[in-house]
Design a protein that fits this description.
The chain has a two-stranded antiparallel sheet. By secondary structure, the chain is mainly alpha-helical. The protein has helices at 35-40, 45-61, 77-86, 104-117, 128-136, and strands spanning 20-22, 42-44. Helix 2 (45-61) packs antiparallel against helix 4 (104-117) and helix 3 crosses helix 4. It starts with 19 loop residues before the first strand and ends in a 44-residue tail after the last helix. It is 31% helix and 3% strand. The chain has one domain (10-136): Transferase(Phosphotransferase) domain 1 (Transferase(Phosphotransferase), domain 1, Orthogonal Bundle), CATH 1.10.510.10.
């Protein structure tokens, strides 16, 4: 698996010498925004790391984070991934389309990295440069143990129905762009 997604835009609104900031104008999609940004308007370079983690878990599972709470299996994709990973069952959530594309250790490592990226406390998330090293390392770098991820669902998620059994059925992902 080769990582190719790396820019989610929040870091662009900061000055070159800023590491964090605050705004009263929240822009983005709930479920992909870091909780400190969505709830308090606080943003940093770690906000993009959170978004990357959500997308990484979506790619691995073939399921969307938005609307996942309606599946009644977990309040969010992040909670579902955490529960399975924490119980050593993370391979149960792998999108069947990807199942034969690489070894199970690589999938487990990607889930682990995704969970590190979606930590509730921004200071616990790795820097994006560290994420890239982790993804390239082939188990040569020991990963820290993630804590329970940030979980905020229900009123913050999309209104589309989703089922835990929904997964991709082809190698193509289609994104619907809707007005705010």
């Amino acid at each position: 698996m080769n990582p190719k997604i790396s820019d989610f835009g929040m870091a662009r609104i900061m000055e070159a010498n800023e590491g964090e900031g605050n705004t009263v104008r929240i822009a983005g999609t709930y479920g992909y925004m870091a909780p400190e940004y969505a709830m308090e308007g606080l943003y940093s370079t770690k906000s993009d790391v959170f978004s990357f983690g959500v997308i990484l878990l979506e790619i691995i599972t073939g399921r969307k984070n938005s609307g996942f709470h309606k599946s009644k299996r977990a309040p969010s994709l992040l909670a579902y991934a955490w529960e399975l990973w924490n119980n050593g069952k993370e391979l149960e959530m792998i999108d069947p389309v990807l199942a034969d594309s690489c070894c199970s250790d690589e999938f487990s490592r990607c889930v682990h990295i995704g969970l590190l990226c979606v930590q509730e406390d921004a200071s616990e998330r790795p820097a994006m440069s560290s994420v890239v090293l982790m993804l390239k390392s082939d188990n040569s770098i020991d990963l820290p143990h993630p804590q329970r991820p940030a979980i905020f669902a229900g009123r913050f998620t999309d209104h589309h129905e989703a089922k835990a059994d929904d997964c991709s059925v082809s190698g193509l992902t289609v994104s619907d762009i809707l007005p705010r």
